[in-house]
Structure formats: C-alpha cells, structure tokens
Amino acid sequence: MLDDRARSLLKTLVERYIADGQPVGSRTLSRASGLDLSPATIRNVMADLEELGLIASPHTSAGRVPTARGYRLFVDTMLTARPVSELDPGSADLAAVRGQLHPDQPQRVIAQAASLLSSLSSYVGIISAPRKAGVFHHIEFLRLGERRVLVILVSPDGDVQNRVVFTARDHSSAELAEATQHVNAHYAGLTLEEVRERLKNEIDALRGEIAALMQAAVEAGSEAAAAGAEQQVVVSGERNLLGVQDFGQDLGSLRRLFDLFEQKTQLMRLLDVSSRAEGVRIFIGGESQVVPYEQLSVVTAPYEVDGHVVGTLGVIGPTRMPYERMIQIVDITARLVGHALSHK
Question: In terms of domains, do 144 and 43 share one?
C-alpha cells in the first residue's frame, strides 16, 4: 500500500510521537528520517498518509499524529521486537522479573506478576489466575418435577456444583438413573472441553435424552466456571492512567475505564480471547471490543504451566506506548510466570 519513502516517514513519525508526545511537523520529519527530501515533498507524503487514515492533524497544531490504523500498520510491519531468548541476561527488565517472581511462593506469583507488569510499564498490569479445568469426577441427575432436573457435578477435589436445568420433555427417575450411570461410566475424569468435543462426535450414537442431559451438564459446568471469572483477574496500577497526558481532562472516559477495572468480567473475556493465540497479541484503539477506547492499547500474552496454557497476562496503556518495550515486558513476564508456577 505504501512505497518505501512513505513507510519510512510514517515509521519516523510514529517513533517521534511515541517518544515526545507532540504532533510531528515536516521539519522534524526531515531531520529525523535522514531522507534527502524537500519540505514540500514531505508535506505531500503526509497529505497522502492522512488521506489513507494513517495519521491525523490536531486542530491546534500544524503537525500530525498517528491514528489507530497508523499504529496498527507500524506494529504489524515496522516493529522488530527482540525475542526473550536474544535479550541480554543482565537486562533490567529480565532481572526485575526474575528477582520478584519466586517459584517457592506460587500463591503469590499472580499478584506479584500484576504489580510487576504495572511497575515496569508504568501503565495497568492485568493477569488471569490459572483456571482449573472443569473436570467431571461424578455427575448425578435428579428429577425435581415436570421437565426440571437437578444436575450435580462433583470435581476431583470435592467441589460440588448444582444447577437446575429445564428439559424438552419430562424424564422419569429411572431414565435419569440410567443417564447418570452411562455418563459416569464413559465421561468421568474428562474436562468440560473434552466432553464437549466428544459430544460433537457421539451425539448421533447417544440416546436422545442422554445427549440432551449431557449437553445441559456441560453448559451448567461452563456457567459455573464463568461465574468465578471475576475473582480470577488481578489488576494493578489503575491510577497510573491518571498521569497519562493523552487522556487530558476527559474524566468521563477515565470513569468508564475504572468501572471496567472494577467489574473485571469484560477483562476476563479479553484475556480468554488472548489465551487462544500464540505469543504476544496487540489490540490498538478499541480493536479488542472489550476495551473500546480509541486512546488505549492492550498488549497480552498467554502463559503456560507444564506445557498447557492456563492463563493470560498483559498491559493496558495509551496508544502512544513504546510497543517494542511493552512486547518484551509482557513476553518476559509470561514466560517467567509459567516457569514459576511449573516449579511449585
């Protein structure tokens, strides 16, 4: 979409704006880019970039600032963050994470990680605690009345979840006892996701009432897991956003942001989406649909315990953030959180 000259000027503009926080004019671009271009040529290129929606001109300045679309192009095609494996073992970020995440204190690792993400980034740190896979140890179906069944789910560690489900037709106690026996014989010990996948393949082979009850049990178990999501997200450093000049005096936006941090349910949705991706993900200017603010970006990464993704962590800050550094902070922390929890 852009020729080399336009890409170079856009890259320079984004980098200067991230560093200085001031709209970038053609004279600054001419000096910083190192390109031998006349002011008129630079102004023409900037006009083209503005027409493409990659930069914008604030009313109070002759300079330009990146748009969310401009940041997206910069991050996707112009950023070259060094992977953790190539970082200097003595680097400050690496040393800070290693020094504060203690494998011998796994119960504190999650809170430490959120605080560390916040202090290293100077923005908001978020992390979801390792979510236990919902596992069927024992299930029982009990008739409560016409087309009402009590589903009792018992996990391997003794947690009990009860849910009332409404069925398409009435089931006798004998049918429910048969369903209970069948489910416990064939599905006990599997996770909710494993049961869900098996049901897709076995739905035709199962008797209709057993299939319906199994689907109801899986949904009940999933709802029970989701109900605890709010307690599984740790947020640190919300007040850091008060000092971000990009938000100016927009107290309404800040108030909505703080409501988001307090509710946490939406943040859990964002972290759930991120956990299904490999490596670092970046949402810019409301792309996540969960943090729907043009002035905010979110950098996330999943973390693994014993080879399995069990949670996600990240940083929420202004779109004018140093993305290369944020990627490294999030990547380092994700790897070392997984390491700390895997060696408990």
Answer: no
The DSSP element (H or E) to which 253 belongs, if any, is: helix 251-263
| CA proximity to 231, closest of 113, 314, 110, 106 | 110
Distance separating alpha carbons of residues 273 and 89, to the nearest angstrom: 31
Report the percent of the chain where pLDDT is more than 70: 77
CATH number for the domain that contains residue 19: 1.10.10.10
State the pTM of this model: 0.71
Same domain, 120 and 238: yes
Distance of CA 42 to the CA centre of its chain: 38
Q: Each residue of 111-141: b (16+ CB within 10 Å) or e?
A: ebbbbbbbbbbebbbbbbbbbeebbbeebbb
Residue in this structure with the two tokens 């095609």, named with its chain if needed: 77
CA atoms within 13 A on the CB side of 70: 30
CATH number at residue 315: 3.30.450.40
Which residues constitute the domain of residue 117? Answer: 84-131+231-342
On the question of pLDDT at 296 being above 60, the answer is: yes
The residues with which 153 forms a beta bridge, in sequence order, are 139, 161
| pLDDT at residue 58 tops 90 | no
Mean pLDDT of 275-302: 80
Which residue carries 């991706």 as its tokens? 277
Collapsed DSSP state (helix, strand, coil) of residue 28: helix
Computed over every residue of the chain, the mean pLDDT equals: 80
pLDDT digit string (tens) for 192-234? 677 767 766 665 556 666 666 777 777 766 666 555 544 578 8
| Close Cβ partners of 105 (under 8 Å, ≥ 6 residues apart) | none
Report how far residue 47's alpha carbon sits from residue 295's, in angstroms, rounded to the nearest whole number: 23
Which run of H or of E encompasses 39?
A: helix 39-51
Three-state SS for 308?
strand
Dihedral of the alpha carbons of 45, 51, 53, 56, in degrees to the nearest 10? 70
Q: Residue 281: enclosing H or E segment and its boundaries?
A: strand 281-284
DSSP for residue 60: T
Domain count, the chain: 3
Which is nearest to 332 in space by CA: 126, 124, 98? Answer: 98
